[in-house]
Amino acid sequence: MPPTVLLGNLPTEMFPAAVTVDNFGAGYEATKMLTALGHKAILFVSGTFIASDRARLRHEGYRQAMLEDGVAAVDPVQIAFVGGYDQLDLSAVLARFSPTAIIASNDLLAFGVIGALRREGLCVPRDVSVVGFDGIAIGQMMDPPLTTMEMPDASMGATAASLLLDMAENAAPARHFDIAYCLRRGGTVRAI
């Protein structure tokens, strides 16, 4: 089998070489930032966990942070998308649970959440704070700029390519690298 490096997925027995980010830690840190700002009613919105282990791990980090703070974690809103995020409807969950903050499992979904909140007459961050994951550039062009857990995509790609070449050319052993993410504070989060 040719050398293979997993990018963004945890190593397996069959593919022990991988370059990842600590998605559990990123979900945990995003939640701790919100709870430190006084948020207790925090909703987690994502695509289906079956389709994304990253979203599942980020949610597990959220659950752990909520547990440590003695706050009940609510069940995640998992959305199976066929089309785009522009028609996301959160009216039912907003009627049942009045979140002061929403964590979206990626930035594109965070944009959809912000749009859905606006359609409900809510303002971000005055009424509901929103946090995303990934750190895509368009999030910084929004008004206000999106608060996000920035993922090091370029560093991950370069590390994976370097590891793959090292394995192919030098018979280097398969290794697992965990690249650091960082919190990028924007204007979509406020203290309550």
Residue-averaged pLDDT:
93
> What is the CATH class of the domain at 24-152?
Alpha Beta
Annotation field: number of helices: 6
How does the major sheet shape up? 6 strands, mixed
What is the alpha-carbon Rg in Å?
A: 18 Å
Choose one word for the global shape.
elongated
Protein name: Transcriptional regulator
Keywords: DNA-binding, Plasmid, Transcription, Transcription regulation
InterPro entries: LacI/GalR-like_sensor, Peripla_BP_I
GO molecular function, one term: DNA-binding transcription factor activity
Keywords:
elongated, single chain, 3-stranded parallel beta sheet, 192 residues, 6 helices, 6-stranded mixed beta sheet
Write the topology of this structure:
Blueprint (H helix, E strand, L loop, with lengths): L5 E2 L10 E3 L2 H14 L5 E5 L6 H16 L8 E2 L12 H6 L4 E4 L2 H13 L9 E6 L3 H4 L5 E4 L2 H18 L5 E3 L3 E3 L8
Q: How does this structure look, described?
A:
With 192 residues, the protein is α/β, with parallel strands linked by helices. It has a domain at 24-152: Rossmann fold, CATH 3.40.50.2300. Helix content is 37%, strand content 17%. It contains 6 helices and 9 strands; from the N terminus they run E-E-H-E-H-E-H-E-H-E-H-E-H-E-E. The chain has helices at residues 23-36, 53-68, 91-96, 107-119, 138-141, 153-170, and strands at 6-7, 18-20, 42-46, 77-78, 101-104, 129-134, 147-150, 176-178, 182-184. A 6-stranded mixed sheet has the order 4-3-5-6-7-9, sandwiched between helices. A 3-stranded parallel sheet has the order 1-2-8, with helices on one face. The N and C termini lie far apart (55 Å). Residues 32-188 form the Transcriptional regulator LacI/GalR-like sensor domain. Keywords: DNA-binding, Plasmid, Transcription, Transcription regulation. This is Transcriptional regulator.
